[in-house]
Write a structure and sequence with these properties.
Elements lengths: L1 E2 L43 H4 L13 E3 L48 E2 L31 E2 H12 L11 E4 L4 E2 L1 E7 L2 H9 L4 E6 L13 H12 L3 E4 L2 H5 L5 H9 L2 E9 L2 E14 H12 L4 E3 L5 E7 L8 H6 L4 E4 L6 H8 L2 E4 L2 H4 L2 H14 L2 E6 L5
Parallel strand pairs: 2-16, 7-8, 7-16, 8-9, 13-14, 14-15
Antiparallel strand pairs: 1-3, 4-6, 5-9, 10-11, 11-13, 12-15
Helix pairs in contact: 3-4, 6-11
């Protein structure tokens, strides 16, 4: 919730009164940052016995929204006049830290102060702790409703996720170009007409997904039928589409596999499962071995659905490999590495007997269910790093 504070003054500060009404909605989310990945080869069978066990990092939390029915859908913010929308660009005061004092400098010309209520982090959107003249924290964190250049946002995400390092099945990054300035971002797992309709309702400037609309094939895509309608919704509403496929599966901090591994309590995460010359997931250890039934229940709780379990022979689970989505054949790399269990999204016919014969548990926890984590973590990173509004739209898929 935002609060409007009228003209204000701190000792030694010059103030300027600004009139007008500002309505803004800012979602404050956790921060996740990802270091540059170092790809190592798939661990050997002795890997699980040689690593030192440490306690896992706590799982992050995020907000999400389910798409309402068409009857319950609220009017589109894009249909309202500009005066009814939250302020942006030069309408928003940008305050900078005065190098000569411990306080905040005065407002820039023609600017408006927009403040958010206090949170536990007590940090502002530019990464500066807000402190008064005596060093105590006296101001709530600020969230600026200013936009960001679309191409700069894409460049930052490309670098963060090392998008160019992957020979993927699709073009990663910007797939459809919309408005040049981005203020609101919607994240989701897969592109669809339902998602784009919801993005229009939310007044989004950009949509970021794991599964986009463009895929490499021998025949170029044609703008006909339902595909044409998807693209029309984006272009007609000036909404950009940004997609990251394998880069968002394999990232050691923000990736689907890494995020799921931490939710399960795995530590000592390592790149795992070579695919097209790079790792596609992670493997890790439990601080202490867990019973197989307890492990299966933990997967169900983390993914929000009951997984298909093809049991092996091991009654205690100490090491686990994870490749989210549809990665059936990477199971053999888990067997070769000597892991106790393998998690992916889908299963195929031969899995039942293969797991029984090899002794390594195969858990199919759902393609959609295992790939919600990465795009949500990426949204938190964008909100924290760039101060943009980010909302995750959950459109569950039983597959």
């Amino acid at each position: 919730m935002l609060a409007w504070f009228g003209p204000w003054r701190l000792p030694g500060m010059v103030t300027k009164s600004v009139s007008g009404k500002a309505a803004a909605s800012v979602k404050t989310t956790g921060s996740t940052s990802g270091p540059t990945q170092k790809i190592r080869s798939t661990p050997s069978a002795a890997w699980a016995r040689s690593r030192t066990r440490r306690s896992p990092a706590p799982a992050a939390r995020t907000r999400e929204t389910s798409a309402p029915s068409s009857a319950a859908r609220s009017p589109s913010p894009r249909s309202a006049s500009r005066s009814q929308r939250p302020l942006s660009g030069p309408e928003v005061r940008r305050r900078t830290l005065n190098p000569g004092s411990a306080g905040w400098g005065g407002p820039q010309p023609e600017a408006t102060r927009v403040m958010a209520t206090a949170t536990a982090t007590r940090r502002g959107p530019i990464g500066c702790t807000e402190r008064g003249l005596m060093g105590e924290s006296i101001l709530p964190p600020l969230r600026y409703h200013a936009g960001m250049d679309l191409l700069q946002l894409v460049a930052d995400l490309d670098e963060l996720l090392d998008a160019d390092a992957v020979d993927d099945y699709c073009p990663n990054g910007l797939q459809v170009e919309g408005a040049r300035e981005v203020e609101r971002v919607v994240t989701a797992v897969s592109a669809s007409r339902a998602l784009f309709t919801r993005a229009v309702d939310l007044g989004a400037d950009a949509v970021i997904v794991h599964h986009g609309v463009l895929w490499k094939s021998a025949e170029p895509a044609r703008l006909i039928g339902s595909f044409r309608e998807r693209i029309r919704l984006l272009l007609a509403n000036d909404i950009s589409l940004i997609a990251y496929h394998l880069p968002l599966d394999r990232h050691l901090e923000l990736g689907n596999a890494a995020q799921l591994a931490r939710r399960l309590g795995l530590a000592e995460l390592e790149p795992f499962a070579e695919h097209r010359g790079v790792s596609a997931g992670v493997c890790g250890l439990f601080p202490e071995p867990v019973e197989a039934d307890e492990f299966f229940a933990a997967v169900a709780e983390a993914t929000g659905r009951e997984p298909q379990v093809f049991e092996g022979r091991r009654r205690e689970i100490a090491s686990v490999g994870i490749v989210t989505g549809a990665a059936e054949r990477e199971y053999f790399q888990a067997v070769e590495a000597g892991l106790d269990a393998y998690i992916t999204g889908e299963a195929t016919e031969w899995v039942l007997h293969q797991a029984a014969e090899d002794g390594v548990h195969y858990i199919a926890a759902g393609h959609y269910a295992t790939e919600r984590f990465g795009v949500r973590a990426l949204g938190r990173w964008i909100a924290d790093r760039h101060g943009l509004e980010v909302e995750f739209v959950d459109l569950p898929n039983p597959v």
